[in-house]
Amino acid sequence: MTALLTGLASLLVFGGVVLVHELGHFMAARHCGIHVEEFSIGFGPRLWSKTKNGTTYSIRLLPLGGYNLFSTPPPEDDDEAEEGEIAPKPPRKTALFPLAVSGQKFEDATAGQRFFVTLCGALMNFVLGVVVLLVLVLSQGRLGSTTIADFSDGAKSAETLQTGDTILQVDGKPCWTIYTLADVFDGTEKTHAMKVLRGGEVVTLPAVTVGPTLNEDGSVSYATDFRVAAQKLSVHSVAVVTGEMFRYYSGAILGGFWQLFTGQAGMEELSGPIGTVSAVSQAVRYGWRDVLSLMALLTINVGIFNLLPIPALDGCKLLFLAWEGLTGHPVPDSVQGFVNTAGMVALVWLMVLVTLQDLTRFL
Questions:
Q1: Count of domains observed in the chain
Q2: What number of other Cβ atoms are within 10 A of residue 199's Cβ?
Q3: The pTM of the whole model exceeds 0.85
């Protein structure tokens, strides 16, 4: 039963993240009047397909990605050129959001339109992340605040803080929700400068020592030696907490990428599809909230990763299009082809290495 739930949850997570990403490209292309030859979820052999309005919608065997195939749209009968006559090149569209789908080639769209189409994949991943986080917040019933409710036995922070204090700043960093506090306190004993709201007045506390709450065996139970009070759901609190969760996830992902690029973390820290399925399996054991939390983390990760200026990814294509938009001259096709091909080879090689690493780790 667990294997079945893991399979279904994996399809939901992978399929949902890939679907919204490609749907972002597809919807933006349709708005810009760009013809889409095929909208595919997955790679490899085709399992199912349907053609409608000149676009083939397909599902393929390997659900590890997807693509929108932009190609020459089918010619209309009344616009066919006579034999031997060179058909005139259709004019570039100037409106970013034409009302009708004109069926133009991707190459004939303006640099701004192509930039928009390329960007919308990652944007849709961020939208999915916000929606999933919003569902998680709404399902909690109550949210953690930054108001102190009580202290652990022997808490050092109780020497300076008081029950009912609302933490406004820690070391100059504004604190809005419990997720901001999670960024500040890491489970080690440290002294911080704080500003708190106490009795309607803002009080500055230059030295507040906060330690962790420990279990009987000495392990860390909570990162702080105080607890925060709950707050009821409201439009404002839900919006703030959802935004903080998105910022928290994004910050953790960007921090991970930075550690990889600077050498602070090695290849052993990476995980591929097999590792993700293993994480989904663990999340299934804890419940649907953990599955959705993993889905939010994955879709935000995909969005950020695609925007990085790495060859073959959307981020690199956006740089090429930005150059074209600013200078009026596109980057030569030979340069784009070389850069994207080299990037694709490197990404495939990285995927192989990460997959082999996952196999040795989990099998």
A1: 2
A2: 8
A3: no
